[in-house]
Amino acid sequence: SAKVKAFIRECPQCQSNKASTQLPAGLLHPLQIAPAPWSSVSLDFITDLPKTVAGFDCIIVFVDRFSKMAHFVACHKTITAAETGQLFLATVFRIHGMPKDLVSDRDPRFTS
C-alpha cells in the first residue's frame, strides 16, 4: 500500500489527472485608470537576487500607475510590512506625497 501511494505521488500522469480541491478562480477585474500622477501606486518585490556587499537580496518596486515612473529600493527578503511602510514613507511619500490608493499582489507580508 505504501509503494502504491509513493508511485501515485511521483507519477506525472496521476498528478495531472487528479481532481482539484481548490475553488475555480473568478474572473479578473481591471483596475481603474489612475486620475493623476502618484495618486495610485503599485508595489511588488523582486526576490532571490544575489546578495550585495551590504547583504541585500531583494528589491521593492514602487510604481506610479499613471506615469509608470518607478522607484527601486534594495531591501532584505525578510522585510516586514512595517519596514515596507517605512521604506514607502522614505521613498515615495517624502517626494510625491500620499497616494489615494496602494495596489499590491496580496503578498503574505501584507495579508498576514
Automatic annotation (TrEMBL):
MF (Gene Ontology): nucleic acid binding
InterPro entries the UniProt entry points to: Integrase_cat-core, RNaseH-like_sf, RNaseH_sf
Domain of life: Eukaryota
Domain Integrase catalytic: 33-112
Record GO biological process: DNA integration
SUPFAM superfamilies per the UniProt record, alphabetical: Ribonuclease H-like
PANTHER family the UniProt entry points to: RNA-DIRECTED DNA POLYMERASE (PTHR35046:SF18), ZINC KNUCKLE (CCHC-TYPE) FAMILY PROTEIN (PTHR35046)
Name of the molecule in the record: Integrase catalytic domain-containing protein
